[in-house]
Amino acid sequence: MNNHFEWTNTVENAPATEPERQRYFMVKCRELIEQKKQELGRDLTFNPQTFGCQMNFKDSEKLNGILEEIGYVKVDSENADFVYYNTCTVRENANIRVYGRLGSIKNYKKKNPEMIIAMCGCMMQEAEEVEKVKNTFRFVDVVFGTHNIYKLAELLYECLSTKHRVFDVWEKAEGIIEDLPSDRKISFKAGVNIMYGCNNFCSYCIVPYVRGRERSRKPEDIITEIEKLAKEGVVEVMLLGQNVNSYGKNLEEPVTFAQLLRMVEKIEGIERIRFMTSHPKDLSDELIEVLAESKKVCRHLHLPVQSGSTKLLKAMNRRYTKEGYLELVAKLRKAVPDLSLTTDIIVGFPGETEEDLQETIDIVRQARYDSAFTFIYSKRSGTPAAEMENQIPEDVVHDRFDRLLKVVNEIAKEQNKKLEGTTGLVLAEAIDEKDPSMITGRLSNNNVVHFKADPSVIGKIVPVVLEEAKGFYFIGRLSEDV
Ligand code: SAH
Ligand code: SF4
Ligand code: F3S
Question: What is the pLDDT of residue 4?
Fold first, then answer.
């Protein structure tokens, strides 16, 4: 895929090195925003619209950090002076949703001539989508990709000062820029990128094309960031990467993911460590050891299986077999008996037969997942699977999907039932959306628990008796044995 759009800023005096250059543009933008504020007699606002996975949500925190530094004030409505769409393209419906939203935002722009609309994220790494925005959605002012989100201030300055549309999408990442602002939503938990990109090229997946090759951050940069977070009151970190198990392989001084976990564990104040996502082919014995021994690494592993059919796994380029995956699960269960296991499954991959579906149902029964995300295969142009013959008709896929989901739900319910009556440590996260007298939190194994408590427990880890398993969540009671 060739999707490089050249763009260079002509502003003189801007430093050539990062992050100094972006700091410079943040100041320049701040001056312009300050001027506008005086003219209009009000604050200038921004509204983030984020789609897709945790990577995108993490990127949005960085974009929000820059926008706040510039002087914009965050609001919940798309009726704002700057709105960005951080897009996802992993499945077709993600794209459709974004274009639907763009259609409706046009009216806001008609009423507010100051409004700037930006699009970024994975969809913008696809040349045909950028062309579509360029030609069909002419009210979109700024377009950038996944490799240059750190340049938001520079791109915005160009747009604000010239009133031109700005397109800047890079085919490849150019190193990792550290030390730029970031704005976190929750005070006690945070996501931390440990690596970017993916080298696996599963045959159905667009991510390696839109996120580029695997790049690991240096362990010292990760540790410094987490130490800072801990000082700010963060107790739980989620280490993020498309395939965390291959973390550190491409560093000058290679470090394994298990070694990184041990380093993070030593950070005072951090009580829980989670990570996403693990590819089964790279899950090491060393990692299993850390999972078994650690007091901080959570009792939860998301281990996407995608299919239970060895034939389909091969066609998907997953590089493990059904038997290999089940052996890994057995090893994990033996070493960490209280581990909660979750997964991703794709239904309707090209060439899937009824027998293949039965293999998938069988692996769900054998692996006993605590929950699973099931997806209908979505054809992504540019991926090898999109060219495969035997694409499966929609009605057949839906029928298979429904049957699989029934089994997934049945097993998940049984798994949860096992914990009924036990006491678990819960990180209290928020006031329950449905019942404000209740608090919602998560167990180490990632299960959701609702329990009566004072909002002052939010951000703390408290013991909760799991009184009733309700399918995917628990109703609990604060334990008195504190
Ligand atoms: N890096 C992670 C997953 C990233 S995408 C991993 O390898 O596990 C999240 C999930 O989306 C995948 O696990 C897969 O189940 C699903 N997915 C990816 N591409 C898809 C496609 N073309 N159609 C349907 N589901 C897809
Ligand atoms: Fe996609 Fe596979 Fe990479 Fe996950 S490991 S992001 S499914 S290519
Ligand atoms: Fe979507 Fe990009 Fe994540 S395609 S799933 S937002 S890496």
Answer: 41
Q: How many of the other CB atoms lie within 10 Å of CB of 67?
A: 27
Atom of ligand 3 nearest to the CA of 56: 6
What share of the chain in percent tops pLDDT 90? 90
Average pLDDT over residues 301-313: 98
Complete edge-to-edge strand list for the sheet that includes strand 300-302: 300-302, 340-347, 371-376
CA atoms of 422 and 99, how far apart (whole Å): 47
Cα-to-centroid distance, 164 and ligand 2 (Å): 36
Query: Quick check: 119 and 85 in contact, CB under 8 A?
Result: yes
Which of 428, 423, 438 lies closest to 480, judged by CA? 423
DSSP state string for 277-334: ---GGG--HHHHHHHHH-SSB-SEEE---B-S-HHHHHHTT----HHHHHHHHHHHHH
Reading phi first (left if > 0) and then psi (alpha if -120 to 50, else beta), residue 96 is in alpha
Kindly identify the ligand whose nearest atom is closest to the C-alpha of 52. 3
What residue ranges line ligand 2, CB within 6 angstroms? 198, 200-202, 205, 207-208, 242-243, 279
**pLDDT at 114 (0 to 100):** 86
Closest atom of ligand 3 to CA, residue 146:
2
Q: Is the CB–ligand 1 distance for residue 247 below 6 Å?
A: no
Alpha-carbon distance of 345 to 35, in angstroms, equals 52
C-beta of 124 in contact with ligand 3 (< 6 A): no
Q: What are phi and psi of 257, to 5 degrees?
A: -65, -40
> Taking every pair of C-alpha atoms in the chain, what is the biggest distance, in angstroms?
68
Closest-approaching ligand to the CA atom of 92: 1
User: Residue 221 and residue 384: Cα distance in Å, rounded?
Assistant: 36
What is the spatial distance between Cα 61 and Cα 404, in angstroms, rounded to a whole number? 36
Q: Where do the H-state alpha helices sit in 165-297? A: 207-211, 219-231, 257-265, 285-293
Q: Which atom of ligand 3 is nearest to the CA of 87?
A: 6
- 351-364 burial: b if 16+ Cβ within 10 Å, else e: ebeeebbebbbebb
What pLDDT, on the 0 to 100 scale, is given for residue 6?
A: 47
Q: What is the pLDDT of residues 85-143, one digit of tens each?
A: 999 999 999 899 999 999 889 889 999 988 999 999 999 999 999 999 999 999 999 99
Task: Name the closest-CA residue to atom 7, ligand 3.
Answer: 207
User: Ligand 3: distance of its center to the CA of 94 in Å?
Assistant: 9
Residue located nearest, by CA, to atom 2 of ligand 2: 202
| Closest ligand 1 atom to Cα of 302 | 8
> Which residue's CA is the closest to the ligand 3 atom numbered 1?
88
Q: At residue 438, what are phi and psi to the nearest 5 degrees?
A: -110, 155
pLDDT digits (tens, 9 = 90+) for 37-89: 999 999 999 999 999 999 999 999 999 999 999 999 999 999 999 999 999 99
